[in-house]
From TrEMBL:
InterPro entries: MPN (IPR037518), RadC_JAB (IPR025657), RuvA_2-like (IPR010994), UPF0758 (IPR001405), UPF0758_N (IPR046778)
Record-given protein name: DNA repair protein RadC
Residues covered by the MPN domain: 108-229
Key word tRNA processing present: no
Family: Belongs to the UPF0758 family.
UniProt record, GO biological process: proteolysis
Example of a GO MF term: metal ion binding
Keyword terms: Hydrolase, Metal-binding, Metalloprotease, Protease, Zinc
Residues annotated as signal peptide: none
Organism (species): Venenivibrio stagnispumantis
């Protein structure tokens, strides 16, 4: 927390380049950004006392970008550093999201093959990614979050990052997926150990790991289909 406050107090120009939202997005893609970093890009500038990351954090109140839906134009104007122009831009973002969601069909995943079809885009990824789908008791997908990106070993992915979003989305089930860009979909020993550990922790926390799918150009491997969950 102290480190975060330090980052928020600093001027953007004084931050390391790997912490700058625009540079990070250009290097790793928009999907690598946190909710605060995404909002910071839209806000463009901060204030005299707080840089743009700090301002974005204040708007989201240390929470999800979904919190924007609960803010009115008047609520935004009460935040120091938000004038009518920025408030109107944020409200426009909400309206765009609402209009998109009106036509967005529900995604129901009831089998490993359906999960694979939804995550098949990972076949084309050149970087390794660990993704989590969060479902309710009716198998409806509530959200999809990237847990880790880059040259990763899933064994080193932090379980707290997976369960943080599960709590945030009020999910029941979790489907994990990661890709093997240059290999077979067959799980490594590390993949198996990681899955066992996450499964054990999920039961302790009241969630259910429904599957862990490994995706490669030659197809996919489902832990559930192979009796490993």
């Amino acid at each position: 927390m102290k480190e975060e406050k330090f980052i928020y107090k600093k001027k953007i120009k004084d931050l390391p380049k790997d912490l700058l939202p625009r540079e990070k997005a250009l290097k790793y893609g928009l999907s690598s950004l946190s909710d605060i970093e995404l909002l910071a890009i839209l806000l463009k500038t901060g204030t005299k006392d707080n840089n743009v990351l700090s301002l974005a954090n204040k708007i989201l109140k240390n929470g999800s970008i979904k919190n924007l839906r609960d803010l009115s134009f008047e609520d935004l104007l009460k935040i120091k550093g938000i004038g009518e122009t920025k408030a109107l831009e944020i409200m426009a973002i909400n309206e765009i999201i609402n209009r998109i969601n009106q036509d967005e069909p529900e995604i129901i995943i009831s089998s490993p093959s359906e999960a694979y079809q939804h995550l098949k885009f990972l076949e084309k990824e050149t970087q390794e990614k660990l993704i989590a789908l969060y479902l309710n008791t009716s198998n409806k997908v509530l959200a999809k979050h990237i847990i880790a990106i880059g040259s990763i070993n899933v064994l080193n992915a932090k379980p707290r990052d997976i369960f943080y979003y599960a709590i945030q989305e009020n999910a029941y089930g979790i489907i994990l997926a990661h890709n093997h860009p240059n290999g077979e979909p067959k799980p490594s020993k590390e993949d198996i150990e990681f899955t066992k550990n996450i499964y054990r922790l999920s039961l302790e926390m009241g969630f259910e790991i429904l599957d862990h799918i490994i995706i490669a150009k030659k197809g996919y491997y489902s832990f559930a289909n192979n009796g490993l969950l």
